[in-house]
TrEMBL record:
The lineage of its organism: Bacteria, Pseudomonadati, Pseudomonadota, Alphaproteobacteria, Hyphomicrobiales. The keyword rRNA processing does not apply. Coiled coil: none annotated. Belongs to the tryptophan 2-monooxygenase family. Keywords: Auxin biosynthesis, Signal. Its EC number is 1.13.12.3. Pathway: Plant hormone metabolism; auxin biosynthesis. Residues 1-31 form the signal peptide. This is Tryptophan 2-monooxygenase. InterPro entries: Amino_oxidase, FAD/NAD-bd_sf, Flavin_monoamine_oxidase, TAT_signal. It catalyses: L-tryptophan + O2 = indole-3-acetamide + CO2 + H2O. Residues 49-451 form the Amine oxidase domain. It is an enzyme of class 1 (oxidoreductase). Pfam families: Amino_oxidase. It comes from Ancylobacter moscoviensis.
């Protein structure tokens, strides 16, 4: 009697019993049972990219498992109940017309809410005049054009060098040029322009977020992954190339998972830090590419600001003009979350790292200082805060990954498969939309398409 091949379409007695038992098991037990054996595709990482990939694989009727190292899905899209409101302390929206995330949400019966377009600008503790809006738009447009000119020249210096040379002054000079520079660098990438590749910034063309979920983006991501075959608290520690199969070692799980293809959807900084071992080791060009795009630091702080002293509409975003003295670091304000008194400030770079290291104590001091210096709001108005700590979380190790000077072309490496059977997915893969939720979702779907092509058509 010949043995049935492990990926045959036939239904063996062992498979029949496993399938029959699965129907009687609760979801976590079913995920565990499926994980202890062969699957067509293993997806590592339960953020937007991993959820998108798993949904596509499930729709194709292939066997799979989605392995998430943390306690729940969503990645850096995380919704918390803060001061009685659902608040995103991570990704808070996405561009509806860019990618298929909105279509997937609507197909799953999930509602969507429009976010206000544009940003409110404040100058000297009050909203900027129309001339201020014009000056900021002109400064931002000029900065982007200057970066594109540098990219076309074939050179890839630090972005700060390009902007300083174009303006005839350091990129930190006061005024709307400095505000535009802060918006492009620290507030978008969590790092100063002096550490960012001009080419990488020039290639980035991400539309602004204009849509969110009614209960928050984290809640939306969890809802989109609710019916998937998921193992949470299942960190993958090693991936071994075994020829026609890859073996995934999961912490505290004795039996490795064997997969014909792998979608690796964990944050780039986690891979760069060596949190997942590869056997054989990562090829040098992949290892170098991951090192070339270090993570920035962005942390968000939620707080109550009663009485709407800034006169904001619900969910408006506020950017204040950078001061001439440079004493107050730039920050981005999301005001009146869902029409409430809850506001969220995003801090970058050094201030974000301080929050990640010291927690709410440092966050409260930074919020009070910023509100007082920027808007003239008394410090004791804010009594309590709730802060993210992405930079110190070993499952994330920072915010979005941006290329260092001279390394802007390295991002293209991530389009290639690793060891022929591992497909990379995440917000860092896309050369133009990197750092966005829609880019992560689209990358997950693209990786799933390639993995499905590898394992072939038909049921598992």
């Amino acid at each position: 009697m010949t043995e049935t091949p492990p990926f045959s379409g036939s239904l063996t007695r062992r498979r029949f019993l496993a399938a029959a038992s699965a129907a009687l098991l609760p979801a976590p037990a079913f995920a565990q049972a499926m994980g202890e054996g062969n699957v067509d595709i293993a997806i590592v990482g339960g953020g937007a990219a991993g959820i998108a990939a798993a949904r596509k694989v499930a729709d194709a009727k292939r066997s799979y498992v989605l392995l998430e190292a943390g306690p729940k899905l969503g990645g850096r899209a995380r919704t918390l109940n803060v001061f009685g409101q659902n608040v995103d302390l991570g990704a808070s929206g996405f561009a509806r017309g860019d990618g298929t995330l909105a279509e997937s949400a609507q197909a799953a019966g999930q509602g969507l809410v429009a976010l206000p377009s544009g940003r409110r600008l404040f100058d000297g503790r009050r909203e900027a005049h129309e001339s201020g809006y014009d000056a900021f738009a002109a400064a931002l447009g000029k900065a982007r054009r200057d970066l594109l000119v540098a990219a076309d020249s074939g050179k890839d210096p630090a972005a700060a060098t390009i902007l300083a040379a174009a303006s005839g002054a350091p990129a930190t000079v006061s005024g709307w040029s400095a505000t535009a520079a802060a918006f492009l660098g620290p507030m978008s990438c969590g790092r100063p322009l002096a550490s960012l590749s001009a080419l990488d910034l020039a290639l980035r063309d991400a539309p602004p977020d204009d849509t969110t979920g009614p209960a928050g983006m984290g809640a939306l991501m969890e809802a989109l992954g609710a019916w998937l075959n998921v193992q949470t608290d299942a960190p993958v520690t090693q991936i071994t190339n075994a020829g026609r199969l890859h073996m995934l070692t999961v912490r505290n799980q004795r039996t490795p998972i064997r997969a014909r293809a792998i979608i690796l959807a964990v944050p780039a900084p986690v891979i760069a830090a060596g949190a997942i071992r590869f056997n054989p080791a990562l090829p040098p060009r992949f290892a170098n590419a991951f090192r070339a795009i270090p993570a920035g630091a962005l942390e968000q702080v939620a707080f109550l600001l009663p009485g709407n002293p800034l006169g904001l509409e619900p969910n408006e975003t506020v950017l204040a003009r950078v001061g001439a003295d440079g004493k107050v670091p730039p920050a981005l304000l999301r005001g009146r979350i869902n029409g409430s008194d809850v506001h969220v400030l995003t801090f970058a770079d050094a201030q974000a790292r301080e929050i990640a290291e010291k927690g709410e104590t440092a966050a409260l001091a930074l919020v009070r200082t910023y509100l007082g210096a920027t808007f003239g709001i008394a410090g004791d108005t804010v009594k309590e805060v709730s802060a993210s700590r992405w930079t110190s979380d070993p499952l994330f190790r920072g915010a979005l990954a941006a290329a260092s000077p001279g390394q802007g072309a390295q991002r293209r490496v991530f389009a290639d498969p690793l060891q022929n059977r591992i497909f990379l997915a995440g917000d860092y893969v896309d050369t133009s939309g990197w750092g966005t939720l829609t880019a992560a979702w689209s990358a997950g779907e693209a990786a799933a398409t390639r993995a499905l092509r590898l394992v072939g058509d038909g049921p598992a």
